[in-house]
Amino acid sequence: MTLSRFLLASVVLGVVAGVVAGGIGILTEDGAEPAPTPSPTATPAPQGETALAVAERFAAAWAAGDTDAMYALLDSRTQTALPASDFAAAYASFREEAAVTGIDVSVSGEGAQDVTFHVRLKTSYFGVLEYATVVPFVSLREGFPRIAWTPAMMHPELAPGRQLRGDLRQGQRGTIYDRNGEPLAITLDVRMIGLDRSRVFDEETVTTAFVDFGFSEEQMAAAFASPLGQRQRVPLGVVPDSRVEDAARFVEAVPGAVLWFEVRRVHPLGPAAAHVVGYTREYTAEEIEERGRNI
Question: Most buried by CB count within 10 Å: which residue of 55, 156, 238, 242?
Fold first, then answer.
């Protein structure tokens, strides 16, 4: 599995959080920058601590998800430009976008003014990703080595103005035919009808309307009691082609009734070919790793 599965896209200022020169800029919903939060105080380094020792401490904290300990190892200039909350948010976003389930970070090399990390990520969608990243250090004018952090420490492709985004694309399922060329399983865009409870002010009246349209009182009671969010669509059924116009008039007249298209796997013969078609699902990353080329 290669890193080409990631989409490294330019950031649109004011729409999404962005990586900028000198730090991470996080925008609130109204476009204003949040008030700075108190930064953790850097813990004094043991006398004679080397850059290699600092890097090893940072690597251990990264693997443990301890962003406070990581932030305390940054140089003062970086901490001034980058609040601790934004630093923690950058790593949280990295873990989420890469779907990280486990991480191992180790020191693989040491230069005059930097150290190299070997990073191994276990992800739920992209398998295991391995790469190297450079950890730059400031001069020893502060009395001890500290890390001059940049987003590229998370991943070498994270130059200023770029962010990591996981791009998941589900493959299109093919049609299954019988020996006479008749479809047994096909993927279609089907028209769905359902309920948006946030727009309902009279549950009894809406229930009566849906029952008149063809749904049962039990179906409506289950829809109103659905654990989905109040503003989420609760599906009730597929609208057949013969009732498209009826459904369009229905949603115009009944508050809370909604129509939408949804990709569905359709079996024209119903359960008659279940012993042939069966049931399939996506492989997990663990199953792919276990089976290898036998998939």
Answer: 55
